[in-house]
Design a protein that fits this description.
alpha+beta, four-stranded antiparallel beta sheet, 65 strands
C-alpha cells in the first residue's frame, strides 16, 4: 500500500525558492551571470557578473560586498579548499586572489583573457586558464608556472585527490595534466567542450570525468581516457555541469533555459527551474539540499530541494526509492536489504506478497520473488514489463494486476498493460490498500475524500460500501478477522467500526495513522502528537513516546516511518497479557503471549493458569519457555487428578496435594507445608523445607513426627552446607552425623582458613582404628606440604612407609635416611634409589655412587659413570674420564663378592683391571692432550717423554680407547725424544707418523724435524734407558713386543711391571713380592713389623757395601758377610736374603718364560726392613695385600691407598697440599702413604 506521505497529487520532489536577485542591465546590455562558487561550508557565495565580483550571504541572499578590481568582464570565480580565499579571472587578462573579507591579496596576469580559475581541492595550487595557455600558481613559488595549449580553454576541473587537472577546449580536445603540468591523457571530441567535472561519488571503482559538449551530448571518461558509456543525447548545449551532494545526482544547465536534476549517469530526473535565458552556471550548495543558478539575463536564484519518499509496504516488506533511480527492498524483521538498479527515474513503488511494481517515466516493471515458498527470500527477478506511460496519483499491485488511481478513477490493468476493468467513484480517492484475498480476486480498501470507505474486488465491477462518515479519509486498516475497521479522518480522529453493526466501538483524537495487528484482530496501534498508542480488546489504551507514523503492526513489532527512515520498534505485550490474566481469560492471554513476550510473562501465564487448573494453557506456556520442571508438574497434576477416577474424596485429596505443590512452586512455602500437613503428608512438608534449606522449619515439622531420623536431617543439612561452600559448617554437621570421613574430605578439598588445625583435631579425637580416615588426612597434609601434620598422622598409624614416601617426595633426605637407618633393611631401596638420582642431578656424583650402592643398583651407578666418562672424553676432559673409570673399577670391585668360583672371580677382576687400565691411560694422555692443544705448556720434556713411552708400551698393539690419539702420542714422543737425545727413538716415531694421518698444521713441522733428525746420530742417549730394579736388566725405550709374557709397560727380561710415579711417570725402584701362600697377609705384616732387628744390626756393624759378580748378574753385598745361615728354601749362603729370593725366582722363571712373582718365606720376611716396605691394602674383603720393596731407600716413595698408585714422595706431598686430594683418585683421605 502507498504510505501516508504518498497522497494524490504529491510530487516526489519539492522545490522552493529561498531567494533571488536580479542584476540590472548596464549600458543597455544584460548583466550575464558568468560563474558562481560556494565556500566549503556553504555560507558564502561569490558571483562573476559583468566586471564585478559579488559576495553573497548564501542563506538569505544579502549582498555582502561588490568588488571592483577588474577592468573588463569577469568570466570565472572559485573558492579554495578551506574557504579562506577566492579567485576571480577576467577578460583584462588578470587573476586576482581575494581573502574572505573581500580584500585583494595577490594579482598576476596572462597574455590572454582568463576563461577559467580552479583551486586544487588537496593543495593551495590555483589553475588559471586562458585562450593560449594555463598557469599553476603556488603560494610557495615566486612565479606562476605557465604551459602553452593549442586551443582556447573553456572549462577546467581538478580530480578529487588533486593529482590531475582536466581541461576542456574550444577545439574539442580534452587534456588531462598532472600537478606539474605534464600531459597524461588526450581525448578528442568533435565540438567545443564547454563544461566538465570529476565525479565525487566514492563508490566508483575509478575516477570518472563528466564532459558536456556543444554537440548537445553528455559523455563520461575514465582517468585513462577510456570512455565509460555511450554519449547521452541532451537536445541542448550544456553550459554547466556539477554534482549534487556526494555525487548522487548531477546538475546540468544550458541553452534549454533550464536547471535540471539528473542521475549521476546523466539520466534526466526532473526540471528544477525554468528560466527565460540560458543558464550559464548551476552549483550545489555544500552541506545543504539547495542549488544556486545564474542565467544570461542576470538572474540569480537559490532553490531548496526536498526529496519526498516514494515507497510501499506489505506486512514485513518495505520498498522505497533511493537516489531517485534505485529501489531498495527491506525485510523489516531480518533487516536484509536488496537493491534494484532501474537506471531511470523511479516515480512509484508498490509491493504485495511476492510482487513488486516499479513505475518509471515510460514503463512499469513487475518483479516477483525467486522462491515463493521462502518468506525470507529477497531475490527479486523481472517478471513483466509494461511499456506504457501511465500517469497516476497512486499505484498498487496485486498477484496478477496493477491498479492505477487517478482522482476519482480506478483502472485495473493486467501485466501486459491491457485494461481489464475501470471504476469511476463518487469522490476523489484519498487512500487505497490491497486487503489480500485469493489470487485474482483480491480485495482493495478505498477511502474517499467524502468519507466513504469502499471495498473493491478486482474481479467484481461493483464496489461495496463498508462505512460512510462525514470527514475525509486520511488512513484506514482492517483487522485480520475482518470484523473491525479503523479509520483516521482529516480531523485527526481515529474511529474503529464494528463492520457487522456499523457502530463505532472506539474513537480517539490526535491521530495521524493507524494499523491493526496482522496476527491478532483485537489489537491495533495508532500514532499522533509524538505518541504511540496501543489498544487491546476492551482494555484501556497504553501510550508511549514515538516520532513518526505507524504504518504496520505485526506480532510484537511496530513499523514506524520517521521522515525518510523506516524503523522497527519492539513492543512489549506484557501489559495486555497481565490484563487478560487478571480477568481469567487465559485463551486470550495465550494469544497475546504468542505475539511475543518475555519468558517471565510466559511463566506468569503458566502459573496463573496452573493455579486455576487450566492445565492445557499452563502446559503450552511452559513448553514455550522449555520449563521442564513445570511441564512435569503439570503432567503429575494431570495424572493425579485422573487417578481419582471420579471419586469425590480422592479427587478432593488430589486437588489438595495439587494446590500444595502449586503453592510450593509459586513461593508460598508456609501455605504449601500446612496444606501437606492437613493432607497427612508431613514428610513432603519436611522435604519442602529441606529443599529450601530452611532447616529450623523442617525441624519443627520433624519434631512432631517420631518416624523422622534427626541424624538423617543433620546429614542433609551438611550436604546443603557443602553445596553452598560453607565447608566448615558442613564438616561440623558430618561429624555430628557420625561421618568423619566425609568431614575430612570436605576440609581437605576446600582448605579454608585454619583447615590444618580443624583436621588435626579430628585426627586426634578419632581412634587409631579409623585407618581410612587417617590415611585420607595424611594424604591431604602431604599434598599440601604440611609435613609436621602429615608426620603426626602417619606416626599415629605406625605407617612408616607413607612417612618415608613423604620424605622422598619432599626430598627431605636427612629425615629419610635417618628413618631408613632406624628401620634398617626395610627402606634402603625405596629411599636411596631416588636419593641417588637426585644427587646425580645435583652433580654430586660421589654421593650418588654411594646411594646407588645402598640401593643395590650398581647397574645404575655404572651407567651414570659411563655417561660421565663418555661426555668427559668428548669434551677433552681426560683426567675426569680417568677419574670416572677409576670409580667404575672401584664400584665393579666393591659390587662383587669373592667366592670359591675362581673363573667368576677372574671375570670380575678382569673387568676391574680393564677399567683401571683405561683410568691410567686417560690420566697419562691428559698431559699429551694439553701439550698438543694448548699454545703454552709448563710440562717438562722428561715427563712428556715418560708419559708417551708409558702409553705406547702399556697399550701395545691394541686399539687405543676412544679419545686417545696415537698420532698425538707419537708426535709428543718424537718431539721429546729429539729434545732429550733419543734420536733413534725419534726416527722411529716420525716413521710411524708418516704412516698415519696427521693434522695439516703439523705436516711442515714434522717434515722439517725429519730432515733435521737425519743429521743426528742413530742412537739413543744411554742414560734414558730404563733399568729393571728386579733383575737389573737395561730395557729398550720401547717394548719390542717380541715376548708375549713381557707385553706392556714391563721389563723385557723378567716381565716385572714398571712401577711409575703418577706425577712425572718416572720408574720407581719398587719390586713387588708376595708372602708364601702358607703365610697369611696379616702374619706376614706382623713378621715384617715386629721381628727384632737388633741382632742383625750388631752383626752388620762396621761392614760396608761391596760390588761383585754372581753369575751374569751384577750384585752388591754388605761387607764380607759370609753368613751361611739357612734361607727359606733350606739352602745356605751369603748376601741379602731378598736378593737371593729374587735370584731364585729368576732361575725358576727362566725355565718356563712366564712372569713369576717373588715369593718370600718367614725368614726372608723377617729380614726385611720395615721402612723399605710399602703396602697396598685390599679394596674389598677377600683380596690379598700387595707388598712392594723399595730397592733404593734413598728415593722416597708414597702410595695412595684408595687407588694403589705410587708417587715420588715430594711430588705427592706437593700436589696433595695444593689440591687437598690424591691427584689420581681425588680422595681426600689417602691413608698411610709412606712405608711400613
Amino acid at each position: 500500500c502507498p504510505l501516508p506521505t504518498s497522497f494524490p497529487h504529491a510530487p516526489t520532489m519539492k522545490t522552493s525558492t529561498l531567494w533571488t536577485d536580479d542584476v540590472p542591465p548596464k549600458d543597455g546590455e544584460k548583466s550575464s551571470i558568468n560563474d558562481l562558487a560556494f565556500n566549503p561550508s556553504g555560507t558564502q557565495m561569490v558571483v562573476a557578473v559583468g566586471s564585478r565580483v559579488l559576495l553573497y550571504n548564501a542563506s538569505d541572499g544579502d549582498l555582502l560586498m561588490s568588488l571592483r578590481a577588474h577592468k573588463d568582464t569577469v568570466y570565472c570565480v572559485d573558492f579554495d579548499r578551506d574557504g579562506a580565499r577566492f579567485a576571480s579571472g577576467s577578460a583584462d587578462c588578470s587573476v586576482i586572489i581575494w581573502n574572505k573579507d573581500g580584500k585583494p591579496i595577490l594579482k598576476y596576469s596572462h597574455n590572454d583573457s582568463i576563461q577559467r580559475v580552479c583551486f586544487n581541492p588537496a593543495t593551495d595550487c590555483l589553475a588559471s586558464c586562458t585562450n593560449s595557455d594555463f598557469g599553476l600558481y603556488l603560494p610557495t613559488e615566486k612565479s606562476v608556472a605557465k604551459y602553452k595549449v593549442q586551443s582556447k580553454i573553456l572549462s577546467a576541473s581538478w580530480s578529487n585527490d588533486g593529482q590531475f587537472l582536466a581541461l576542456g577546449m574550444f577545439s574539442g580536445q580534452i587534456t588531462i595534466r598532472d600537478r606539474n603540468g605534464n600531459e597524461k591523457v588526450n581525448i578528442a571530441r568533435s565540438a567545443p567542450v564547454w563544461c566538465l567535472s570529476w565525479s565525487p561519488w566514492s563508490d566508483e571503482a575509478f575516477d570518472l570525468l563528466a564532459v558536456g559538449c556543444w554537440d548537445q551530448t553528455l559523455s563520461f571518461y575514465q582517468l585513462s581516457g577510456i570512455q565509460h558509456q555511450k554519449d547521452r543525447k541532451l537536445g541542448f548545449n550544456p553550459c554547466s555541469i556539477s554534482y549534487f551532494g556526494n555525487g548522487e545526482y548531477m546538475l546540468i544547465g544550458g541553452s534549454n533555459k533550464q536547471a535540471m536534476l539528473c542521475t549521476r549517469e546523466g539520466a534526466k530526473l526532473c526540471v528544477i527551474s525554468d528560466r527565460q535565458e540560458w543558464v550559464w552556471t548551476v552549483k550545489y550548495r555544500p552541506n545543504h539540499n539547495a542549488i544556486a543558478l545564474g542565467d544570461n539575463g542576470g538572474g540569480i536564484m537559490m532553490i531548496n530541494l526536498q526529496f519526498l519518499t516514494v515507497h510501499g509496504l506489505y506486512k514485513d516488506r518495505y520498498a522505497y526509492r533511493e537516489h531517485m533511480t534505485d529501489v531498495i527492498v527491506q525485510h523489516l524483521l531480518t533487516e536484509q536489504k536488496v537493491r534494484i538498479k532501474c537506471r531511470d527515474y523511479v516515480k512509484k513503488v508498490a509491493v504485495f506478497r511476492d510482487r513488486l511494481a516499479v513505475q518509471l517515466p515510460d514503463r512499469i516493471h513487475i518483479y516477483d520473488l525467486a522462491n515463493h515458498d521462502d518468506s525470507y527470500d529477497m531475490h527479486y527477478r523481472i517478471k513483466e514489463r509494461i511499456h506504457q506511460s501511465l500517469p497516476c496519483n497512486l499505484l498498487v499491485v496485486t498477484t496478477s494486476h496493477i491498479i492505477l488511481c487517478q482522482e476519482r478513477k480506478l483502472q485495473l490493468l493486467d501485466f501486459q498493460g491491457v485494461m481489464v476493468r475501470e471504476w469511476i467513484l463518487a469522490s476523489v480517492i484519498r487512500y487505497i490498500k490491497v486487503d489480500g484475498g485469493k489470487a485474482g480476486s483480491e480485495g482493495v480498501l478505498v477511502g474517499l475524500k467524502d468519507g466513504t470507505i469502499l471495498k473493491v474486488y478486482v474481479d467484481n465491477a461493483f464496489p461495496i460500501e463498508l462505512i460512510k462518515q462525514s470527514a475525509s479519509i486520511r488512513c484506514l486498516d482492517i483487522s485480520i478477522d475482518r470484523k473491525r475497521l479503523a479509520v483516521v479522518d482529516s480531523d485527526n480522529r481515529i474511529l474503529v467500526y464494528d463492520l457487522a453493526t456499523k457502530e463505532i466501538v472506539f474513537q480517539e483524537s490526535n491521530a495521524n495513522s493507524v494499523a491493526f495487528n496482522t496476527e491478532l484482530g483485537d489489537m491495533l496501534s495508532y500514532s499522533g502528537n509524538g505518541t504511540l498508542a496501543i489498544k487491546t480488546g476492551e482494555f484501556p489504551v497504553s501510550n508511549q513516546k514515538l516520532q513518526g507514523f505507524v504504518v504496520g503492526f505485526r506480532g510484537s513489532k511496530i513499523f514506524c516511518l520517521h521522515y525518510l527512515t523506516m524503523k522497527t520498534i519492539d513492543i512489549p505485550q506484557s501489559a495486555s497479557l497481565v490484563r487478560y490474566v487478571e480477568s481469567k481469560d487465559f485463551d486470550s492471554a495465550y494469544k497475546i503471549a504468542c505475539l511475543g513476550v518475555t519468558d517471565e510473562d510466559w511463566r506468569t501465564l503458566g502459573l496463573a493458569s496452573l493455579k486455576a487448573l487450566d492445565l492445557e494453557i499452563a502446559r503450552k506456556a511452559f513448553v514455550r519457555i522449555r520449563e521442564m520442571r513445570y511441564i512435569e508438574l503439570v503432567n503429575s497434576i494431570e495424572a493425579r487428578l485422573k487417578s481419582a477416577n471420579g471419586d469425590k474424596d480422592e479427587l478432593e485429596h488430589a486437588k489438595g496435594l495439587c494446590q500444595a505443590e502449586i503453592c510450593a512452586w509459586s513461593g508460598d512455602y508456609q501455605e504449601a507445608a500446612k496444606t501437606y500437613a492437613r493432607m497427612g503428608e508431613v514428610e513432603k512438608a519436611i522435604n519442602l523445607f529441606v529443599d529450601l534449606r530452611q532447616w529450623d522449619e523442617a525441624k519443627v515439622f520433624a519434631a512432631g513426627n517420631s518416624s523422622i531420623d534427626s541424624k538423617d536431617l543433620t546429614r542433609r543439612q551438611a550436604e546443603w552446607a557443602e553445596e553452598t561452600s560453607d565447608w566448615k559448617k558442613a564438616a561440623e554437621m558430618y561429624l555430628a552425623a557420625g561421618d568423619p570421613l566425609r568431614a575430612c574430605n570436605i576440609i581437605g578439598e576446600n582448605k579454608g582458613n585454619d583447615w590444618q588445625e580443624i583436621m588435626i583435631d579430628v585426627v586426634r579425637n578419632i581412634p587409631k582404628s579409623e585407618v581410612e580416615v587417617l590415611n585420607v588426612c595424611g594424604k591431604y597434609y602431604s599434598d599440601a606440604d604440611e609435613d609436621a601434620f602429615a608426620k603426626e598422622v602417619y606416626v599415629k598409624l605406625d605407617d612408616f612407609s607413607n612417612l618415608m614416601q613423604l620424605y622422598i617426595r619432599k626430598q627431605n633426605w636427612v629425615d629419610a635416611t635417618r628413618l631408613a637407618d632406624e628401620h634398617e633393611g626395610k627402606f634402603d631401596k625405596s629411599v636411596f634409589l631416588p636419593y641417588a638420582e637426585w644427587l646425580a642431578v645435583q652433580d654430586r656424583f660421589d654421593a650418588a655412587l654411594e646411594a646407588y650402592r645402598k640401593a643395590g643398583r650398581p647397574d645404575q651407578s655404572l651407567k651414570m659413570m659411563e655417561d660421565l666418562t663418555s661426555n668427559a672424553v668428548t669434551e677433552g676432559r681426560f683426567k675426569d674420564a680417568s677419574y670416572y673409570y677409576f670409580l667404575m673399577g672401584t664400584e665393579t670391585l666393591k659390587g662383587i663378592k669373592l667366592t670359591k668360583d675362581k673363573k667368576k672371580n677372574e671375570r670380575h677382576l678382569k673387568l676391574y683391571q680393564e677399567f683401571m687400565n683405561k683410568a691410567d691411560w686417560y690420566y697419562a694422555y691428559s698431559s699429551i692432550h694439553n701439550f698438543c692443544n694448548d699454545p703454552f705448556t709448563s710440562l717438562q720434556p722428561e715427563m712428556l717423554f715418560q708419559v708417551s713411552r708409558f702409553l705406547i708400551n702399556s697399550m701395545g698393539q691394541i686399539d687405543a680407547p676412544y679419545g686417545i690419539s696415537r698420532v698425538n702420542t707419537l708426535y709428543t714422543l718424537a718431539k721429546q725424544a729429539k729434545v732429550l737425545g733419543a734420536f733413534k727413538l725419534a726416527r722411529f716415531a716420525y716413521d710411524r707418523l708418516q704412516q698415519l694421518k696427521v693434522p695439516g698444521t703439523w705436516e711442515d713441522n714434522i717434515d722439517f724435524d725429519m730432515l733435521t733428525i737425519q743429521a743426528k746420530p742413530v742412537r739413543d742417549n744411554p742414560e734414558l734407558a730404563p733399568v729393571c730394579y728386579r733383575c737389573g736388566s737395561t730395557n729398550p725405550l720401547l717394548n719390542p713386543f717380541s715376548n708375549q709374557h713381557t707385553v706392556g709397560d714391563k721389563c723385557t727380561n723378567c716381565g716385572h711391571p714398571f712401577i711409575r710415579s703418577f706425577v712425572n711417570f718416572d720408574i720407581l725402584p719398587l719390586v713387588e713380592f708376595f708372602p708364601n701362600p702358607e703365610i697369611s697377609d696379616e702374619d706376614a705384616l706382623e713378621i715384617i713389623t715386629t721381628h727384632d732387628k737388633d741382632a742383625a744390626k750388631k752383626k752388620n756393624k762396621g761392614k760396608e757395601w761391596e760390588e761383585g759378580k754372581r753369575g751374569e748378574s751384577d750384585v752388591m753385598t754388605f761387607g764380607d758377610d759370609d753368613d751361611d745361615g739357612e734361607d727359606d728354601w733350606g739352602g745356605r749362603g751369603g748376601g741379602d736374603p731378598f736378593e737371593r729370593a729374587i735370584n731364585k725366582t729368576l732361575e725358576t722363571q727362566d725355565g718356563n718364560g712366564a712372569y713369576q712373582p717373588v715369593i718370600l718365606g718367614a725368614k726372608t720376611l723377617a729380614s726385611l726392613k720395615r721402612d723399605e716396605i710399602y703396602l697396598c691394602k685390599p679394596i674389598i674383603a677377600g683380596m690379598r695385600y700387595r707388598f712392594y720393596k723399595n730397592m733404593i731407600p734413598d728415593i722416597s716413595v708414597a702410595v695412595s691407598q684408595p687407588c694403589h698408585r705410587f708417587f715420588n714422595e715430594e711430588d705427592f706431598e706437593f700436589v696433595y697440599l695444593k689440591d687437598g686430594a690424591c691427584p689420581f683418585s681425588r680422595a681426600k683421605d689417602v691413608g698411610d702413604y709412606g712405608p711400613l
